[in-house]
Amino acid sequence: MNPRLIASIVLIATCALWAFSFPLLKSIEQLGRRNAPGSSSLFVSTLLVAMRFSFAAALFLVGLWMRKAWQGRRGGADRHATRVRPTALEWKQGLGIGVFGSLGLILQMDGLAYTDGSISAFLTQGYAVLIPIWVTVTGRRPPGWPVVGACMLVGFGAALLAGVRPDHLHLGRGELETLVGSVLFAGQILWLERPEFSANDSVRATTVMFGAMAATAWPLALGLAGELQDTVRAAASADIAGLFVLLLVGCTLLTFPLANHWQPKVTATQAGLLYCTEPVFTSVVCLFVPGWISRATGLEYPDESIHARLVLGGACILAANVWILLRPPPRPGAA
After folding, report:
1. Model confidence pLDDT, tens digit, residues 87-127
2. Beta-strand (E) ranges in the chain?
3. Which among 51, 71, 223, 322 is most buried, taking Cβ atoms within 10 Å?
């Protein structure tokens, strides 16, 4: 099968799994604030980022040692494939995507406190437009009508999904933070595409990425804590532990390594458009997962309902991706 098609299918599958992170994160945040009354949503969200990626980094580090031991017993294994310590380029790749990703997540979460969730969801998808603009400027060549048309379809579809109204848009703190977060997400996608990283081991690079995201989030979480004990209180419950395991396994340990390995096999522009399927899957997931979580934890988090915006917006985004997938493979350096 065409590697580009396989990569596209894998990236869409990761978006389907990432969709579950939205109700899981929202529920854990509500439970955390219930456990530590008076804590801000930004503190709980940043603490969750720190804990999520600390556990992921630790588990991946253990996995690297286990891989080395297993391949060592087989004999004749490639030394580069069995090493645990990242190479200089793997450090560079992992630190880059980790810092871009963690700062983008934190700005997006803080922006949510100052704007509507629908506006945040719409503005976050801005990286689908920012990436081809960057490629056009740096490559000094137009992106072509298929890319322009796909970006317009994605923008229109994201607006429909989010329920954005032109008279409701304004640029306040929340909107500006979300836009900066979208720029950082675009930077993360573009950084991963760099040709110098093509020979890197994606597992080691992902381990560095997880560590970088945790190291970026912990100082902020501790600085935002009213008391040091809040970092324990906010996470100390069986309900949070159960939801956290689902978030860690299904939306972190499986998804990020797949994305880091397969994204470089498509262009950054194509990756940005493929990632825009995430809000489509999120809208579907929110039709049933919040109710399940509410019944299990006692939260008041109702299911969403099917509406015309979901169908039309999702159709536009999926049509844009089909359009790009059916497009002939781009020449090197093209969008």
Report:
1. 999 999 999 999 999 888 888 877 766 765 556 666 777 78
2. none
3. 51
- If one counts every other C-beta atom within 10 angstroms of the C-beta of residue 108, the result is 23
In a domain, 98, yes or no: yes
Length of the chain: 335
Terminal-residue alpha carbon distance, the chain: 22
Residue 335 forms part of a structural domain: no
pTM of the model: 0.83
Count of domains forming the chain: 1
10 Å Cβ neighbour count for 163?
A: 17
d(CA 12, CA 271): 9
- The Cα-based distances of 84 to 66, 87, 93, 170 in angstroms read 10, 9, 16, 48
Angle at CA 222, nearest 5°, toward 115 and 243? 65
* Selection from 321, 318, 272, 324 nearest residue 126 by Cα: 272
Q: Is residue 333 part of a domain?
A: no
User: What CA–CA distance (Å, rounded) separates 263 from 10?
Assistant: 9
Exposed / middle / buried, residue 28 (Cβ in 10 Å: 0-12, 13-18, 19+): buried
Give me the torsion for CA of 317, 322, 325, 328, rounded to 10°.
-120
Range of the domain at 231: 3-73+85-326
Locate 152 and state its tokens: 């317009």
Token pair belonging to 303: 């299911």
Confidence grade of residue 170 (pLDDT, cut at 50, 70, 90): low
The stretches of 251-307 forming alpha helices (DSSP H) are: 255-262, 268-275, 278-285, 289-297
The span from the CA of 212 to the CA of 191, in Å, is: 15
Nearest Cα to Cα of residue 158 among 279, 40, 10:
279
> Is 78 within the bounds of a domain?
no
